[in-house]
């Protein structure tokens, strides 16, 4: 058979592995990060659950595992480790599918020989010492959960960050065993400046959803200030202070947050999603100061067309509804005196009542609830609502 057939066989085999990963997810086994554990190509057959294998100590096949101090060390079984039980199958001069195919995925060629398909096991992007854990009495299956029942060991049997937090926990997440550091750099690879390396060919290294609310989802722009306040040291493991200043110094508008034409559309966005705006901006200072400089606020300099460009045509007729719907928005620019100028008992707008028809019949209840609002316009209210 051709190499194309071998490739097809590998594709089908990889599909079986994907199915196995999905089954592991259904059974409650978390999927592993492609960034931390790059995808593997496994063209081997090794049943850990086979009775003959189940009786063996892990290091009987994975020689030197308890002495390894680097995650990039290859701890896969060598032929010499398999020889005591599979010596007859390792006879290369009489290679055949019956012999080699017991352990290797491949194809028997026309001349009777067997072509083994290649495997690929990229090292984990972690700092990890098997030796240090072995000294503390950590067993293999404490980290490689379920491997003893696996028909094929895959990435699904490698440790998750959450399982590591059983000993390396911090701030109420998991527990911290003496000697097990909770610093991110303990396990994750770093750059020359000491911060974590977060960019890899498979994607970005991001926090999990269960860690202090640090998952970088679409709402993180709103939540990040609270996360930073509670877990600032965790943020600085990946981010430099200059990244905060890029957004918070008031001079740079990051395109990742606001597009280039955002100045012309931000009013609509602000009316639609005020809480999101308020997660970074304060209306009493940020918005009001800018509008005052542009003459779009009653606090603008004398002679400016204050307020005219900010409110759309016809707003005077509709402003009552807007005020009742979101008075706090109006108050970010206007003071109480602005309302009294038109609605007060005296002044340029005397007689423009803010009350709906028939209000006189119910005004006593409003007076009893909040007399100050009545006094603002009417002054002495002793004669009101008789």
Terminal CA distance reads 104 Å
Number of helices: 19
Helix/strand structural class:
mainly alpha
Percentage of residues in DSSP E strands:
under 5%
Compressed to H and E, one letter per element, the order equals: HHHHHEEHHHEEEEHHHHHHHHHHH
Overall geometric form? elongated
- The largest sheet has its strands arranged as 1-2
The profile of the biggest β sheet is: 2 strands, antiparallel
Low-confidence stretches: 1-28, 301-307
Give a verbal description of the structure.
- The longest helix has 24 residues, at about 5-25.
- This protein is mostly helical and about 375 residues long.
- Strands 1-2 form a two-stranded antiparallel sheet. It has a two-stranded antiparallel sheet with strand order 5-6.
- The chain is about 40% helix and about 5% strand.
- The protein contains 19 helices and six strands.
- It has helices spanning about 5-25, 50-55, 60, 80-85, 95-100, 130-135, 140-145, 160-170, 220-230, 230-235, 240-250, 260-270, 275-280, 285-295, 315-325, 325-330, 335-345, 365-370, 370-380, and strands at about 105-110, 115, 170, 175, 200, 205.
